[in-house]
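Dear colleagues,

As part of the handover before I leave the project, I'm documenting each prediction I ran so the next person doesn't have to rerun anything. This entry is a single chain, and its sequence is reproduced below.
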Amino acid sequence: MAGPAAEPGATWAAVAFGDYGPFCGIRDDRSLWCWDPGSIDRRTPARISGSWAAVDRSGQHTCGIRTDGSLWCWGDNVFGELGIGSDDEARGEPARVGAGHTWATVTTASFATCATRTDGSLWCWGNLPGDDEDHRSPVRVRAGTRWAAVSIGDDHGQRASCATR
């Protein structure tokens, strides 16, 4: 079977590239595909089960929001960047974050993740900019504020985040 990139007429709704490791894309049919440059066959992507609305990738972890609003993360988890309550191990398969909530956006940096819920609240976890503590589960940022968008990134080990209300 040919990979999705080889299919005539295949179109992509979103793509996400990280500093290291795989890059991912969501096709118009909401299927999510990730390529792993560390694999033997770098031309063949793997399909990640589910129907996806958004994906972001940075460092060595990936997070995505399914079309039902659930948030899922996988990859390295050294600083709790997966948001699953621990930093014990990497996950090869998506693990659900913040069950029971509906997520709107997600953004990733090498060791941290931030996301907004549909109620406008902002949540971050992992090794956050300006914080000496690693957060293994989502932590609310400035309760009572409605956030429209957030972006987190890093350059040469320096992390920064910006959000708009």
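The longest strand covers residues 134-141. The CA atoms of residues 26 and 164 lie 25 Å apart.

All the best with the project,
I.
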